[in-house]
Design a protein that fits this description.
Elements: E1 7-13, H1 20-34, E2 38-44, H2 51-61, E3 65-70, H3 76-86, E4 91-94, H4 106-115, E5 119-125, H5 132-148, E6 161-164, H6 165-172, H7 181-188, E7 192-198, H8 211-225, H9 228-257, H10 265-298, E8 305-309
Parallel strand pairs: 1-2, 1-4, 2-3, 5-7
Antiparallel strand pairs: 3-8, 4-6, 5-6
Helix pairs in contact: 9-10
Bound molecules: uridine-5'-diphosphate and magnesium ion.
Magnesium ion (MG) binds next to loops.
């Protein structure tokens, strides 16, 4: 076997027993045709089904298949990170196990890389099959991110991309815990280009991203690339102070120059509740940042490998 393959394909796997064999077959078929020396690194993110057995069988038959198995579920981004840490190729392609990322696009990614691009990303074209809700929320998220973060983040950017060795080296040197890879890739620079692709429906199994997980993912993205939410408290506080200043002037005017009196505990109560609510919200915002600082400060490893096969 070739010592240093030209291409490494990194695949995070979390309960994908119905997908790994098909993915392996399709990726090898494509790469065999192009004649590229390659390895496939499956990162088992603590699967509870037969995924690991399937991957072990593949590795026993084909020495180009390698498996890293986590001690528990650490998450998609951590799995990608482990794959990059272990990849030996001059170029590394990351793709999902569920065949939503078409292996047929690999030669096109390689061609762009040979042209000299160090990051060849992909952009999902609007798939009819992703629900209205998912596409609307994702659109809102990319809009918000580009407004407040200052890093370029093309809408629909997928975790299906080719990275040059130099980029992999840069990324593996960044050990932050909140690994919002799309943002990091935008942040590091290099020569980047994007190819559009049509996302296929999932081959087997169900999505591993529940709504709450997506929300956490989005929060990670925002907090690791923008401190705007923290500053928002200043602006909102200033606005409220300004309004209350004018209201105070009005109250004094009524008291001094008219016979009317300012009435109503309702307005007082509303003002108190409103300000109380705003304060709690911003305490929460501070808490989001603080908890992430705490997580980083602990310096725990990003993932724990229980077993490696084929290395
Ligand atoms: N995945 C993972 N760990 C997780 C969740 C997901 O390794 O905790 C993998 C999953 O097996 C798949 C990829 O990440 O290969 C993308 O997940 P999924 O297809 O469920 O996400 P979606 O395409 O629905 O956004
Ligand atoms: Mg998927």
């Amino acid at each position: 076997m070739n010592e240093n393959p030209e291409l490494s394909v990194v695949v995070p796997v979390f309960n994908e027993e119905g997908n790994v064999s098909e993915l392996y077959a399709r990726v090898t078929a494509v790469l065999q045709k192009t004649g590229v020396a390659h390895e496939i690194i499956f990162v088992d993110d603590g699967s509870a089904d037969a995924s690991l057995e399937r991957m072990g069988e593949l590795s026993a038959r084909d020495p180009r298949v390698k498996v890293i198995s986590f001690s528990r579920n650490f998450g998609h981004m951590q799995a990608l990170c482990a794959g990059l840490d272990h990849a030996a190729g001059k170029a590394v392609i990351t793709m999902d196990a569920d065949l939503q990322h078409p292996p047929d696009l690999i030669p096109a990614l390689m061609a762009k890389w040979r042209e000299g691009y160090e990051v060849v990303g992909t952009i999902r074209e609007e798939a009819t099959e992703t629900g209205l809700f998912k596409s609307a929320t994702s659109r809102f998220f990319y809009w918000l991110m580009s407004r407040i973060s200052g890093t370029k983040l093309p809408r629909g950017a997928a975790d299906f991309r080719l990275l040059d060795r130099s980029v992999v080296q840069t990324l593996t040197g960044m050990r932050e815990r909140a690994r919002f890879l799309r943002g990091l890739i935008g942040w590091i620079g290099y020569r980047q280009t994007f190819l559009p692709y049509r996302a296929d429906p999932r081959f087997a199994g169900q999505t591993k991203y529940s709504l709450s997980r997506m929300l956490r993912f989005a929060l990670d993205g925002i907090t690791s690339f923008s401190s705007f939410p923290l500053k928002l408290a200043t602006y909102v506080g200033a606005c409220i102070a300004l309004v209350s200043f004018f209201y105070a002037a009005y109250a004094i005017y009524i008291r001094l120059f008219t016979d009317r009196a300012i009435t109503g505990w309702a307005s007082v109560l509303i003002a108190v509740l409103f300000v109380g609510g705003v304060q709690l919200i911003f305490l929460g915002v501070i808490g989001e940042y603080l908890s992430r600082v705490y997580e980083e400060a602990k310096q725990r490893p990003l993932y724990i490998v229980r077993r490696k096969i084929g290395f």
